[in-house]
């Protein structure tokens, strides 16, 4: 766990820092289920640091497939033993995911705590979760991760006990543990469903307002841009997974035009799928948005790789054709001219910003507004005279182009967005006149 000064809760959690040795096994892609077989120890280093560990050594190996018992081969295991002793490490972290048996065998061989990448990410999530919803979601992910492991753990002991007549206690204990876990998972799901019901009610109150959601790799600068645009005061830090909750704020740009902006959890290469599953509720804000703003850290080692990782997670959450603005951030850290030339060719509609400067936030806000107004049209509506005040906002901003009164209705020709049209039709009893100018 990391010593995190949690502004929202106003306390500091301090744990002694661990000394970690990192291990990465490079496998051909097929072994990682097409999820990118290359280990990336720089990123693991940042994850470890975020979780509160000092990295004291690294071991890498290239293999056609994992060694069944210990993941790394015999020679590497010996090298690892020496390194652990020399560096007085307290923890070994694998960039790869280990089976429960491999974890156990390694723990025995090295006599030290072993974590794999999923466990490390789950630990960071558990530490950073500051709202009730985030905490419930993280616990759900942890239990789901544990459940199949528990089973294998016990069946391993059963095998050791062996034979007819020795199965009783093990079986009973396994069943009990399983049942307890199953029960807790059911409780968590129910509590999350209740939170979702409340959220739905709030969303309904949002009145069909245009919704944009910031998405992107962790640490890309989503929260910084959110704060720059909305002044929301969301937690910003140079660490991975600083944000785990969704925050939504209304942005009023002028009297007539407004939109909602949501900041939420960042993604990472090979994000454990239990986490994506459990965070479905938080990610629903992204799912329901009219527009995604995909924030990319221009200063990262490999922006293209980060974009691909984010798109891979998004594939499970949103339809492929969801409108998206690519926003390359941290332009102050790169040769802006060079970067812009290269990426504007690949992403013609991208915006290039530096969220740290006020200018960056303004540029992004303008890009969102351009999309919002892109669907602005001129239409004639039939509005009941009894409800004319619904047009007052359009009068103030000069968007009423014409107005004709007939008996008890007003035929108003307006400049309006789809969002405004929907609101007038659904809420204000207006009707569209068929031969409206387009
Ligand atoms: N130099 C520079 N740093 C930036 C810029 N935008 C954000 N940062 C820094 O990048 C780090 C991460 O920023 P956040 O806004 O927390 O990033 P995030 O995408 O919300 O990250 P998570 O919530 O952890 O997924 C912080 O240290 C920011 O100060 C920028 O335009 N320029
Ligand atoms: Mg954030």
Kindly report the spatial arrangement of strands forming the biggest sheet: 8-9-7-10-11-12
**Averaging pLDDT over every residue, what do you get?**
85
What would you say the CATH architecture of the largest domain is? 3-Layer(aba) Sandwich
- Count of alpha/pi helices: 14
Structural class estimated from helices and strands: alpha/beta
Cα gyration radius (Å): 27 Å
CATH class of the largest domain: Alpha Beta
Low-confidence stretches: 1-12, 33-37, 162-167
Bound molecules: guanosine-5'-triphosphate, magnesium ion
Shape: elongated
CATH H level of the largest domain: which superfamily? P-loop containing nucleotide triphosphate hydrolases
Largest sheet, described in full? 6 strands, mixed
Q: Which topology of the largest domain does CATH recognise? A: Rossmann fold
Strand fraction = 15-25%
What's the β-strand tally? 16
Q: Would you write up a description of this structure?
A:
Strands 8-9-7-10-11-12 form a six-stranded mixed β-sheet, with helices on both faces. Mean pLDDT is 85; it is low at 1-12, 33-37 and 162-167. It has helices at 41-50, 74-87, 100-110, 117-128, 132-161, 168-204, 222-230, 273-278, 280-287, 303-315, 336-346, 358-374, 392-396, 418-427; strands at residues 4-6, 11-13, 18-26, 53-62, 91-94, 113-116, 211-216, 247-252, 258-263, 291-297, 324-329, 351-352, 377-384, 400-406, 409-416, 431-432. It starts with a strand and ends in a 6-residue tail after the last strand. It has 14 helices and 16 strands. It is α/β, with parallel strands linked by helices. The longest helix is centred in the middle third of the chain and has 37 residues, at 168-204. The chain has four domains: 4-126, 3-Layer(aba) Sandwich (Rossmann fold), CATH 3.40.50.11060; 129-204; 211-374, Rossmann fold (3-Layer(aba) Sandwich); 377-432, Alpha-Beta Plaits. Helix content is 44%, strand content 21%. Helix 1 (41-50) runs parallel beside helix 4 (117-128) and helix 4 (117-128) packs antiparallel against helix 5 (132-161). Magnesium ion is lined by residues 222-223, 242-243. Residues 222-223, 242-243 line the site of magnesium ion (MG).
């Amino acid at each position: 766990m990391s010593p995190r000064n949690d502004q929202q809760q106003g306390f500091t959690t301090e744990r002694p820092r661990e000394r970690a040795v990192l291990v990465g096994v490079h496998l051909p892609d097929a072994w990682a289920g097409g999820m990118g077989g290359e280990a990336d120890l720089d990123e693991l280093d940042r994850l470890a640091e975020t979780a509160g560990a000092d990295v004291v050594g690294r071991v890498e190996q290239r293999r056609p497939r994992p060694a069944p018992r210990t993941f790394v081969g015999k020679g590497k295991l010996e090298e690892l033993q020496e390194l652990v002793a020399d560096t007085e490490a307290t923890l070994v972290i694998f960039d790869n995911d280990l089976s429960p048996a491999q974890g156990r065998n390694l723990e025995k061989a090295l006599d030290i705590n072993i974590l794999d990448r999923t466990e490390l990410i789950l630990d960071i999530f558990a530490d950073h979760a500051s709202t009730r919803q985030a905490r419930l979601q993280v616990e759900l992910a942890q239990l789901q991760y544990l459940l199949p492991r528990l089973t294998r753990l016990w069946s391993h002991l059963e095998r050791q006990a062996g034979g007819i007549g020795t199965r009783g206690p093990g079986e009973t204990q396994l069943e009990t543990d399983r049942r307890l876990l199953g029960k807790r998972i059911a409780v968590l799901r129910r509590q999350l469903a209740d939170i979702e019901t409340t959220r739905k009610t709030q969303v309904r109150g949002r009145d069909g307002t245009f919704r944009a959601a910031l998405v992107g790799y962790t640490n890309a600068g989503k929260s910084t841009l959110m704060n720059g645009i909305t002044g929301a005061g969301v937690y910003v830090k140079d660490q991975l997974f600083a944000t785990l909750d969704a925050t939504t704020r209304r942005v009023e740009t002028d009297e007539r035009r407004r939109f909602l902006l949501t900041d939420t959890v960042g993604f990472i290469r090979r994000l454990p799928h239990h986490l994506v599953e459990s965070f479905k509720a938080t990610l629903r804000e992204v799912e329901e948005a009219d527009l995604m703003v995909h924030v990319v850290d221009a200063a990262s080692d490999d922006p293209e790789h980060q974009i691909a990782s984010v798109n891979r997670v998004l594939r499970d959450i949103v339809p492929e054709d969801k409108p998206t603005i690519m926003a390359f951030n941290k332009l102050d850290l790169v040769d802006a001219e060079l970067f812009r030339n290269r990426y504007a060719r690949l992403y013609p509609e991208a915006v290039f910003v530096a969220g740290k400067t006020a200018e960056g936030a303004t540029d992004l806000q303008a890009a969102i507004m351009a999309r919002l107004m892109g669907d602005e049209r001129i239409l004639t509506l039939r509005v009941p005279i009894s409800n004319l005040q619904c047009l007052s906002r359009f009068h103030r901003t000069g968007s009423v182009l014409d107005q004709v009164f007939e008996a008890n209705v007003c035929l108003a020709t307006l400049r309006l967005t789809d969002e405004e049209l929907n609101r007038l039709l659904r809420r204000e009893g207006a009707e569209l006149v068929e031969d409206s100018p387009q």
